[in-house]
Amino acid sequence: MESGLRPDRRPAIAICAWDPSFTAWDPVEDLSGEPWHPVGARTLPVPGSAAADDLATELSAMLARGECSALLLVGATHHSDAFRLQLRAENRRLDRHDRLDHTGPGVARATAPAAEIVRDLNQAGLAAVADSEAEEDAGSYILYRILADLPDGAASPAVGLIRAPAEAQPAKVQSAVKTAAGVIARHLAPLPRPALA
Asked: How many Cβ atoms are within 10 Å of 26's Cβ, its own excluded?
């Protein structure tokens, strides 16, 4: 992505509301038509899809190709009290009747900085908790698929899932997503400089 004649070396955070009917998060915050960006990073809005398998494959491929350095999934929670940062996802098929991967781990843990995100959400006046419950929906399924595809090691990209209570106003949802993305951005390094010809 070019900015004038200079390449944009800010790392990208892909943000995806996996359910197309979840419209509270709008990556375009003004009439410019440009997506919102946190300090030190840029956002890469990814449209949701009713085809959870295809969306999980696309998001995993984006991380593997280096198109983004981090991923934040956005969706709803069946709880009504607070925003929830989901800490883990279970190895379950989308229909919940069997394991997705019979050789994979039973649980995969999100890699985003959860404690810091929850702290900043609460400091912003948005009630938030870190939650180990894997809700039974496409969001949990997609999260597991992506986490299971990540390479082992400390260099794994930050992947998280934030859930909004049903009655949360869109302005609060947008503030929560921006806060979470801002925390993730603080942990990302700039992209390497291109090699000299």
From this structure: 14
Contact of 19 with 138, CB cutoff 8 Å: yes
The enclosing H or E element of 86 equals: strand 83-86
Which uninterrupted H or E stretch holds 70?
strand 70-76
Distance CA(30)–CA(196), nearest Å, equals 38
Q: What is the dihedral of CA 115, 69, 73, 99, to 10 degrees?
A: -90
> Which phi and psi angles does 173 have, rounded to 5°?
-65, -45
Spatial separation of the C-alpha atoms in residues 52 and 48, rounded to whole Å: 9
Closest C-alpha to 185, from 139, 89, 120: 120
Residue 2's contacts (CB-CB under 8 Å, 6 or more residues apart) are 8
**Are β-strands 107-109 and 88-90 bridged in parallel, bridged antiparallel, or unpaired?**
antiparallel
pLDDT at 125 over 50: yes
Q: What is the pTM of this model?
A: 0.89
pLDDT tens, position by position, 142-163? 999 999 988 776 678 999 999 9
